[in-house]
Design brief:
Layout lengths: L1 H26 L1 H28 L3 H59 L5 H38 L1 H23 L4 H7 L2 H42 L4 H11 L8 H13 L3 H30 L3 H35 L4
């Protein structure tokens, strides 16, 4: 009984400390973001830096400088290409939105005329109610399209106004990445620490290594999930001949991280526009595409995350569901990391 009480006390203490650390990290992320990013990038560059240093017989400082420059050159090129594509397609989309509104209005009028043709014998009040409902739906969808486009344009405008901050963020992240990479790529002292220090030190080093691996695997797993959503959506949009396929697919991938809403914010307006233009097959195909992407997402996410974090798929599903239900995306991250850290601490008999 005493062992059970002791285990319960440790579990409660772990939960309290974990909650404080997690929410402190989230709240202070705006101040520590360049250093967090730099540390993550440094972990990615550690092995290439060691490889270059060992094979070219150069110092860790030089090899870290080389890998950092190459990494940021590739990253900057990809960001520049993606930003250029997004901006050009969003601008063109913004110009063409006013052209879609008359089509939507004409389509709703066409529906009303058909209803009047088939239901002339209905009571006039019923017809008026139907007309009012259709007009309301049309108005809401038109407003949704305008709001979506204005939101994207506002986001781009905000991005432009935040360029000084992003420049500062980039500079600090770049410099920090170099120093972190240089330090991490030097001789790995973990094995020496494990052999020279006591059991407590070994546990600390084990927790550190597992935490580092877990964070990297978590980020890579969700990057893979988002990439799958983006690729499937982009291929579907291209096959169906949807305009602005790249920017819309990218928007779907980003919104896919949002609970409940997400991709429907993009798919619903596109489907309605296709219906209003008489492209019924394309509209139905878009609905099928959304269902396909949704199913792939729901199947792949638990498997990818569980395999990368070494957890049972059911525990990941439970963490995702409870977290999203309780506190959205932040809640999901909280629950997943809670399960992961609990398993890590249990392995070293801390809990």
């Amino acid at each position: 009984m005493s062992k059970l009480i002791d285990h319960l006390d440790k579990t409660i203490l772990f939960f309290i400390i974990y909650s404080i650390v997690f929410f402190t990290f989230i709240e202070t992320l705006g101040f520590t973001l360049p250093f967090v990013l730099a540390l993550l990038f440094a972990f990615i560059l550690k092995k290439p830096t060691r490889f270059i240093s060992k094979n070219l017989k150069i110092s860790a400082s030089i090899s870290a400088l080389v890998t950092t420059i190459i990494f940021y050159s590739i990253l900057f090129s990809l960001l520049f290409w993606a930003s250029s594509s997004i901006i050009s397609e969003v601008v063109e989309l913004g110009r063409n939105v006013p052209n879609y509104i008359p089509d939507i209005s004409d389509y709703s009028t066409h529906i009303i005329n058909k209803i009047q043709t088939y239901y002339n014998n209905l009571d006039p009040t019923v017809i008026k109610a139907i007309q009012s409902s259709l007009s309301g739906i049309t108005s809401k969808i038109t407003t949704l399209i305008n709001t979506l486009v204005k939101g994207v344009i506002a986001m781009l405008t905000s991005f432009v106004s935040s360029i000084p901050y992003f420049v500062m963020l980039f500079v600090f992240t770049l410099i920090s990445t170099y120093f972190f990479t240089k330090d991490l790529s030097k001789s790995d002292k973990n094995s020496k620490l494990l052999s020279n220090f006591n059991d407590s030190a070994s546990k600390i080093i084990y927790i550190y290594n597992e935490t580092k691996k877990m964070l990297l695997n978590y980020i890579l797993s969700y990057l893979l999930v988002v990439t799958i959503t983006f690729i499937v959506t982009l291929m579907g949009f291209i096959i169906l001949g949807i305009n602005y396929a790249f920017v819309l697919a990218l928007l779907c991938a980003i919104l896919d991280l949002m609970p409940v809403l997400g991709m429907p914010l993009v798919y619903i307006p596109i489907v309605f526009v296709q219906f209003s233009n008489g492209q019924y097959i394309t509209a139905i195909a878009l609905c099928i595409l959304y269902a396909l992407v949704f199913i792939i997402r729901q199947i792949s996410e638990p498997r990818i995350v569980s395999s990368s974090l070494g957890l049972h798929p059911v525990s990941v599903l439970a963490a995702i569901f409870i977290g999203l239900k309780a506190y959205g995306v932040i809640g999901m991250m909280f629950c997943i990391f809670l399960v992961v850290f609990y398993n890590i601490f249990r392995k070293v008999n801390v809990i």
